[in-house]
Specification:
Structural class of chain B: alpha+beta
CATH architecture of the largest domain in chain B: 3-Layer(aba) Sandwich
Shape of chain A: globular
Shape of chain B: elongated
Radius of gyration of chain A: 28 Å
Helix content of chain A: 25-40%
Largest sheet of chain B: 4 strands, mixed
Number of strands of chain A: 32
Low-confidence stretches of chain B: none
Largest interface: A-B, 14 and 10 residues
Number of helices of chain B: 7
Structural class of chain A: alpha/beta
Order of helices and strands of chain B: HHHHEHHEEEH
Oligomer: heterodimer
Helix content of chain B: 40-55%
Number of helices of chain A: 24
Strand content of chain A: 15-25%
Low-confidence stretches of chain A: 638-669
Strand order of the largest sheet of chain A: 14-13-24-23-22-15-16
Radius of gyration of chain B: 17 Å
CATH superfamily of the largest domain in chain B: Glutaredoxin
Strand content of chain B: 5-15%
Chain lengths: 774, 168
Amino acid sequence: MEISLEINGKTARAREGRTIMEAAAAAGVHIPHFCWHKKLSIAANCRMCLVEVAKSPKPLPACATPVVDGMVVRTDSPAAKKAQQGVMEFLLINHPLDCPICDQGGECELQDLAVGYGISRSRYAEEKRVVFEKQLGPLISTDMTRCIHCTRCVRFGREVAGVMELGLTGRGEHAEIMPFVENTVDSELSGNMIDVCPVGALTSKPFRFSARPWELQTKPGISAHDSWGSNLELHCKGPTVMRVVPRENEEINECWISDRDRFSYLALDAPDRGKSPMRREESSHRLSESPWATALDSFAETIRALSGKYGADKIGFLASPNATTEELFLLQKIARGVGCENIDHRLRRRDFSGGEINGYGITVEQMRRREHLLLVGAQPSAELPLLAHLLRRRPRRLALSSVGAAECGAAGNHILARPSQWSGILESVLRAAQSGGGEKNETAAAAGKKLAGKETSILFGGGAVQSPHYPALLEIARAMSREFGATLGVLCGGANGGGAAKTGAMPRAGGMNTAEMLRGGLRAFVLFQCEPEDFAERALLSRALGEAEYVAAIGAHSGGLRDCARLFLPAAAAAETEGTFINGEGRAQTFAAAARPPGLAREGWKILRVLGEKLGLDGFDFSTFAEIRPQFVGEDFYNGGGDGAAAVSKKKNGADDSGGLELDFAPANNGLELAFAPAIYDADMLTRRSPALQKTASGKNAALAQMHPEDLRALGAEDGDWIRFSDSEGGAMEAAAKANPALARGVLLARCGGLFGAENITAEKMQMDKAASG
Amino acid sequence: MPETPAHLSAESLAAIDREIAKYPKGKKASAVMSALRIAQKEKGWLAAETIAFVAEYLQIPAIRAMEVATFYNMYDLKPVGKRKLCLCTNIPCALMGAEETAAALQKNLGIKWGETTPDGEWTLKEGECFGACAGAPVVIVNNEKMHENITAEKIPAFLQSLKANNGE
């Protein structure tokens, strides 16, 4: 119900239950505040928003006072001003006057409000208190003396990040914001605490002391790490990105971004950043710098020569799903121009039978309202940190995965199992939905009953898509789609998750997909913005690259390919090029370059344009970015939704052998299975090279082989012991072990460096002397 | 939960369970103050590990329990002596001579606020209003037994009686 009230003499209308703060904001009246934040719960502890309300003997906090019909509010009366000045004087009693050396200076809410609402001097002449700094990890710096105890960071942790890592200990004069004992802040959204802190108590550690806000130019950008499409603001000093903060977009990322989006810019000047084209002569063992002209010519010549010698079908083109739509379009145009159908961007996949799904199939907004979400093989906090945030607010979901019980949902909504068991469980859910129960697994049966007749979306995570059982899972999901109209989607598509497939960067009839290329004995590879770590089958790729005659890499960083590439062309990273990402919902977001690529590096589309021209192909004689767009097929290219259920092709696969349903949750007898959960900071070339992200707890864990504590105990091993893993196909790797109780029994979560197979992996504890040298 | 030195006895856990039962299902966190009190009674004081244990038992973040333990005066975050005297120094007690009482306590025990005697017998703490201003100045012994009208001249006899009655 709408009520009417008076704010500063003007009549305003507001819905009942709204606070004075909200009503005033809607009426265009700004009320100063610190602890109030539109996305957090109300604390009313800073008292900065005190206003005068008629008939109230004392000033009232606007953030916590609901409006009442006929209320008369004054935010600028002498009484209100006196209250604000008094509060400001109190807040400044213990706040140091160190604005000139404070990183927040110039963008500090306390500074602004002190100027706007304070008085110019303080009556406080006694000593100020000093609070020691807290070590919160590699991302957040603290100057706790500056803290005004608004508790926004505490509430952010509890309410948004989903884990309470900071608290307000002590009381009154002794109150301090701190973690428990000496814990660090490890949530994947932790960087947002820097933004919500209204003073300089929590600041960005990597950005510290490197620039002043008034020196920075703000440029819009789009996240290049996942298919959510978070909107960013890149703060640049000259040609350099100095930091990244969220750009508000209520429909996508609200006002948050993941730490990955915030701190990956540090990789833009990684040691192996390509600043000049490099070539390796036949006789030489190392890459050496080369002029652009020579490098480009040599590419065209070699590709022509190799396709003449072996045929164009002996070349493979592999591109990152984080490449822009324009880049992928031009790359496939080159591939097809030279007569090659071997092109793919689906690098993290093993089994390509069973058809394709692209995008979420629904929008983020629909995801928020959907009656049920069924997540299969997803690890939201690592794959899509903002999806994890969305899930924390909506309890109606069922998750099936091998990793991360706690984050996927409360007990009863989550089934933890090995990937090979998933299709059986999913079938059980389906049957329960059809028949209304009677299934052995109670959770599955309950889930099936819940899903029946509901508006459900099935979303596959990286764990499912990378698994050899993906075709079987797809089959059942399609049956669910037929049965109760569930939509289908994948979460793990990369920054261009909704667009990569549409650009044509996928093999058509007669072409090889990623898995086939890795096994197809190809003579040449062209890799665009990717390296072996980006592939599900890393070991196979490394072998294929080693056996190939020619490897050309176009990318921002040379590191992962330094040993095998014959040609390296330095390209711009996401923040340095214009382009378009189409996110998982099918939303196209075009962005401009925020920074200049370093040295001689050039935008990917420019490099591809010249390569096309050098190869003598049609359609490469344009000169501006804007000219690429009209070349795309179809009018609605940029506006189409995710493919969803409708566009799923119906190829039959033979992998489904889950006839008899036996759900045992005991460890597998036939060795370990890979969990395929992509480590959050091992997602792409940029996150892998961001020093701050690698120093976080999640970054460090990525190098470890994680197993269920019981499985580890069965090997006679404990945390830190080195384990040797081998598979039946001759692959092997060694890694230090870490027990992770959030894993299913019988799975191995690791960078699968040297392993070829995904199942039947045997593990053996290594002897101590070997461990010492390793 | 694994057996660690912070693990509480079966009796303490049963007592905590009784407290949890007083609140609606799924609201275990509400029992945090009682649980900390019970843990402190068993361990003598609240080490960080004890707080973490209690938090895990109640399924709340450790820092959440730490907030509570640091907020209230009656939780001891450092080891205390056999008898912990907590003297109120708020206005009514101060008007009735709490400052003199404080001086007398400190002189007789030879320790300052927040300190423990070397023999581990006595700890002296400054308290906030106990809600018994009619009997000011007020001293609470070991968080449980309240003594009223403790003026400075009564201190030697007061300490003697506490020693004789083992804190009662």
